[in-house]
């Protein structure tokens, strides 16, 4: 396996590669989904179509026109032709255009960029959505340079510290409540605020930053949702540490709504009242902890095939343009 991932993906390299792809001559871009499918080793049609139907749940036809509206007051919602999508949207633009460039540039899309926690009133491409009642939210693998990084090499679970760790920006009310309850309250829990916004709810909570490599020295790593999902869930579940979290409310391309409590991760009460109890339980029951870690690693495997990920996102756009009467 490769070198251990010590930090997030290289954003500068991602921008460079993304813009190079964007500049490919259009006559080089031949969309042949059947050929792509045949090139995917051990392609499982049932599993892939289940994922496709999960990301794109609404099976109804619809029309996009100048009277279509998005029930949103956000800077980054748009209803526009592909050719008019602005590169000012950074990684969201690059992630969308990596696939939208294969389709006629006169086609129209509705899309919402950013941390989306509500459901639009017309079918729209989003990075995130509520786990329930979300048919108009069509998931794409947006902001993947930030959200999709995985651990390629790790130390064995049994060699890690019998403690739980968490680092993050303490800005949201639920994170503030968590810190009030547990900061410096237990020798089993190492948590702290490392946000760079300059806005601190409590200066005492400010602690040194810990890299992913440093957090992986702990057996238990807490994942707490931010404004939408927790970005850490993906890399924790790819490691040899045990992911602790409350039942998620939002999901991304990672399909957090498909995660099974106490099978893929350790479920904590919404108020974290059983957090120490769970830590002690898995300190004693290391075999059960390692079973959950194995299940989590297996879940992550489905996202590791680049061609499969390409096929899914192209199929989502193909379905979108078909259902909206454009192809």
Give an overview in words.
The chain contains 11 helices and 11 strands. It folds into 2 domains: 158 residues, no CATH class; 145 residues, Glycogen Phosphorylase B (Rossmann fold). Helix 1 packs parallel to helix 4 and helix 3 crosses helix 11. It is an alpha/beta fold and 327 residues long. The longest helix has 18 residues. It is globular, with a radius of gyration of 21 Å.
Summarize the structure.
This protein is α/β, with parallel strands linked by helices and 327 residues long. The chain has helices spanning 11-22, 33-39, 45-55, 90-100, 144-147, 173-182, 212-215, 232-237, 275-284, 286-301, 306-323, and strands at residues 77-81, 108-112, 124-126, 129-130, 137-139, 161-168, 189-193, 218-222, 242-245, 250-251, 266-267.
């Amino acid at each position: 396996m490769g070198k251990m991932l010590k930090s997030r993906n290289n954003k500068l390299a991602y921008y460079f590669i993304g813009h190079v792809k964007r500049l490919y001559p259009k006559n080089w871009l031949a969309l042949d989904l059947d050929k792509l499918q045949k090139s995917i080793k051990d392609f499982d049609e049932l599993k892939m179509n289940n994922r496709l139907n999960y990301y794109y749940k609404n099976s109804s036809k619809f029309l996009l026109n100048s009277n279509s509206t998005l029930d949103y007051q956000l800077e980054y919602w748009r209803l526009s032709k592909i050719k008019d999508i602005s590169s000012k949207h950074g990684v969201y633009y690059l992630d969308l255009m990596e696939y939208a460039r294969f389709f006629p540039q006169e086609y129209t899309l509705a899309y919402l960029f950013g941390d989306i926690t509500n459901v639009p009133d017309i079918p729209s491409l989003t990075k995130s959505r509520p786990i329930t009642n979300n048919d108009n939210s069509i998931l794409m693998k947006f902001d993947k340079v930030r959200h999709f990084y995985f651990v390629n090499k790790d130390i064995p679970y049994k060699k890690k510290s019998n403690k739980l760790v968490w680092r993050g920006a303490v800005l949201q009310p639920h994170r503030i409540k968590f810190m009030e309850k547990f900061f410096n309250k237990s020798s089993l829990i190492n948590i702290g605020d490392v946000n760079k916004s300059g806005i601190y709810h409590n200066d005492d909570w400010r602690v040194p930053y810990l890299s992913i490599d440093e957090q992986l020295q702990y057996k238990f790593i807490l994942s707490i949702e931010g404004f939408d999902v927790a970005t850490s869930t993906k890399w924790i579940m790819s490691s040899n540490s045990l992911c602790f979290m409350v039942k998620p409310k939002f999901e991304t391309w990672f399909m957090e709504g498909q995660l099974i409590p106490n099978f893929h991760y350790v479920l904590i009460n919404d108020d974290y009242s059983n957090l120490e109890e769970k830590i002690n339980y898995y300190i004693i029951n290391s075999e059960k902890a390692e079973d959950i870690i194995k299940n989590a690693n297996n879940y992550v495997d489905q996202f590791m095939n680049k061609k499969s990920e390409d096929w899914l996102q192209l199929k989502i756009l193909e379905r979108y343009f078909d259902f909206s009467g454009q192809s």
